[in-house]
Structure formats: C-alpha cells, structure tokens
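Reopening: structure tokens for the adenosine monophosphate complex, inputs below.
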Amino acid sequence: MSLSVNIKDLDVLTSNAKQIQDDVLKEILTLNANTEYLQRFLHGSSDKDLFKKNVPVVSYDDVKPYIERVANGEPSDVISGGPITRFLRSSGTTGGKEKIFPINDKYIETLRYLVALFSLLTSKHFNDNDAKKGKKMLFLYNRSESTTPSGLMVALASTSFVMSPYFTNPPSKSNSYYTSPDQVILCPDNNQSVYCHLLCGLSRRDEVVGVGSSFAYALVQAINVLQIYWKELSSNIRSGHVSKWITDLNCRNSVSAILGGPNPELADMIEKECSNKSWEGIITRLWPKAKYFECIITGQMAQYIPTLEFYSNKLPIVSTIYGSSESLFGINMDPLSKPQDVSYTFLPNISYFEFLPVDHEGDMASIVDLVDVKLGCYYEPVITNYFGLHRYLIGDILEVTGFYNSTPQFRFVRRKNMVLSVEIEETTEEDILKASARATLVLDQSTNLMLTGFTCHADISTFPGHYVFYWELKAKDVNYVFQLDENVLAECCYALEESFDVFYRKLRSKDGLIGALEIRVVQQGTFDSLMEYFISQGGSIGQYKTPMCIKSSEALAVLENKVLARFYSKKISSSGLIVYFCVLKCFE
Ligand code: AMP
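Re-run output (same inputs, fresh job):
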C-alpha cells in the first residue's frame, strides 16, 4: 500500500476512486494474466472490457478446486500471479461452511493500514491520540494455526494479524496503547487470555480510554467472564499474584509484571462495584475514563447494542471496519455515528470492486463499477483481489447511503443467504433484527429481564412449520429472582410475528401454513456454549459472529440441550389479512 496513514491521503484516495479502481484492475490483470485460471478467459490480455465480457462471476464452489490445488502443493500461478504465502480461514459462522482463501503479506498490510487509519479517525474524535492520554483495553485473541498439505499456514484473519510483525513489531510501537501485553494477546488458550486481558485492564483502570474487540460478541463475552470471575480477579490484584490456572508462562510473567505487587485499595474498589446489586454501567464504573467502545457492531452484531449500552450507561459504540477473508472493503469515516446509522466507505486501492444489484442474480450485464452505484440502491459486492479471486460474489447485501468525495459509502444490510423460511416467505436478517428490537421493548416494559443473546431456526419437522427463537435472558439486578411470565413471553412472540412482512402474516393468519412462533428460553451461558461449539470447529472468539439463523443440526443440538421453557404466540394478527388485501389492491 503506497499511501501513508494520514487523513489528507484519504482525501486523495476517495476523490479519485474511478482512476484508482481502473489502475488496480490493470495491475491485478497484468499480475495474473498468465495464471491457469485467467488464461482460460483472457488469453493473456489485461483489457478491462474483455475482463467484463469474458470472466465469469463466481462463488466459492467454482474456485475451490483451484484453491485446493495450491493448498495441496501446486504452484501459486494456478490462480495467482503473485506469491501465495498463506491462507485465511473464514470464520465459518456466517455461511455455515468453512472456506479457505489464498493471500500474502499484502492482505495483512492492508489490514494494518485500515486499523491505523481508523485509529487515527477515532483519536481525532476522542482526543486520545498518544499513549500519554490513555490506553485501549482491547480483547484481541490468537488461535492456533494449521497448515495445508503443502505446508502453508492456514489461520483466521484476526490471528494472522496479531501474529504478524505489523502487530508485534510496529514501527510506531502503537501497541503500548493497549492495556494487555502481546503475550496475553498471543496466548493460544483463549480462556487464559480473556482472564488476563481483564486483569491487565483492571490494574491499569485509570488509563483506559477505550474498550474494544474485533466483533462485538467478544466484548459481551468478556463482560460475562468478568461477572463470573470478579472475586478471583480482585483477589489476584489484592495479593499481587496471578491465579495458578494461568499456566502459559509468557502470559503469566507479563501479567505479574503489570500487577507489580499487592494493591488492596484497587481490590476493594473492584469488590465494591461488582457486588453492587445492579451491573448497569459497570464498565464506566470500573473504567471511569473510558469514552467509547470500539468493535464491529453492524449486521449480525447489532443484537448486542442494548447489552453493551446497559453495561456502559450508553457509551458510544464505534463500529470500525468492514472486511472479510476474501478482501477488506473499507472503514467507518464517522466514528460518532450511531450503530444503526453506520456506513463504510470503500477504499478504492484495496481490490477491484463491482456490484451486482439485488434481484438481478441471473443478469450479469447489470453489474456496475464502484463509482457507478446509485444512492439508495441495494447491491452485492463482487470482488477481484490481488491473490487469485476474480469476480467473486461476497454474499453480503449492502445499501448505498452516500458518498465521501467520489467514493460510495455503504450500510451493511444482511448476509444474502441468511433467511428464515418455512413456506414461500423470506424473513431476512434485517427483518429478524427489527422484530427482535420490537419484542425486547415488550420485555423491557414488563419485566426486569434483558435479552443477552438470540438466534433462530425454521422448524419444518412438523406441519405447519414454525419459527423458533432461542432467547438467553438475564436479570438486570443480580439479586432479582429469575421468573418467566408466560403472558409477557407470549406477547413477545406476538410482537415478533407482528413485525414480519405481509407474506409471513398471510401464511400464518389466513392460510394457516405457518404455525405459532415459539420462543425457547435457554439457560444462561448457552450462547457462550454455542460460541465454544463454533470455536471447536475452527473459529476464534476474536472473529466470532453469533449466527442469526441456525441451520446446522450440531449447533441446534447445543441450544436444544439448554432449553428451560417454551412459549408460543397466542394471537393471530388480523393485520396480515388487511395488509395483504391492500397490497393486492395496489396491483389491480
Ligand atoms: P470472515 O471472512 O469469517 O471474517 O467473515 C466475513 C463476513 O463477516 C462478511 O462477509 C460479513 O458478512 C461479516 N462482516 C464483516 N465486517 C462486518 C461489518 N463491519 N458489519 C457487518 N458484517 C460484517
């Protein structure tokens, strides 16, 4: 990446998006012209028009055989003109299937560039731009890597980043902004790691100005761990000794050095705050100088907005970057925007970006360039990267919300294939999020409970099929006796159904083809167990995204084993019928 990390360069970049995109495509096609993959379509040419005409738009299954050949030891130029030095494993929680993607150092360098750029933007807004002004408590994790048959490393993007010299040995030594030493971040045991992150963060509480993770779930999980371990954490701080179960020596020694010796005053303060009957605002009580959360909070992660707000007395949640294992895309230029309003500005020098308008799946002629997308329209990104993916469909749906100079900005709408359906209706991630926000209002108004995690599933094992929502609930006050009120939960079921679209409501009310929606309340800790299940399949806390809909029977079994109670919607909405007839009238 030739540009340095400063805001002026960002203006240059976003003002010349068209030219930069054309240059990027030229560079990629020249680099890859003689690969086996591109030869078939371009016969050595790097012409843009020919590329648009001949190179097909593809999904993972189309390129998998080429990727696997390189992974199995054939030369990189089967697919990529540049060297392939490692593979990224996508976290597998979004689409269900695990995929690997070829990359080299350029990907990690781009990620470093985005992270540094984003840090610069947040520092400007929160005025914490040097180590003297404070530290960030970041819950970053490492995850053991595997290798391909040819000996190349396969790791998650987050792991590849924290293991790289860009992170462990940065030119600016910006790591000193973090409360945790590298040894804690790099510890391969995530349980020891999260405990030590908390211990370091608590020891340095007066310096903490920001609290973050890659994706929001890791923050919620850290708060859960704090709730379980606060007595042990404060006892470690009181004595100055790290618990014996922290057996990773590098981690242990580095944390001991940070504790520095017994600190009974700090231990008293932690015990006082954590034994308070309400945990509302615990983050700002323990870390009074914290000004913001920093993590990806859009898309599937949006379900955690109320939880993070509750624990922090509504600290701003700054959503950071948008990216995937296939390519990085862009950053949130306006760190202060509310999570619901966040848009990401694509950076034109990362990959060549094209866009397939939603509902034009079969019509490749409708694909447009980055600078030609239209405000308010919905698209799926199609990327051509430096490492061998050409016109690859990402599977996310984005909406164009504006332009930063000449570069479009996009709101993340949903994953394309994440839909609930028992009949012909399609209930998307976005619908589910909106409906859940409405149902939690009912919960909020009538109980002392909060929803700390959810996912759902279309159960078609019986007729009529119905939607099942798995809800994990927690009392807002620690001493509150956990009670489930059948009427309130039935109302929550109804609120979910009421939010779904006219097709759902018609199939439910008029045709009886969808059965009553069900909420299954699960034990506390169930969503941590679900995460552990996905991690055992190759994921990592750092990159984990709770799936909004569950299709895998193994993951469902994790939830089913923890069901405490079941509630059904008791009413059938008549508005489904009315709205349906109104829609029909409009088409007459
Ligand atoms: P992975 O390759 O496993 O890291 O997963 C990448 C996927 O995570 C993307 O295709 C998106 O579906 C999701 N994702 C990444 N960044 C964001 C973001 N800022 N907002 C919403 N979803 C995101």
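The two ends are 56 Å apart (CA to CA). The first strand starts at residue 86 and ends at 89. Marking as resolved unless the reporter disagrees.
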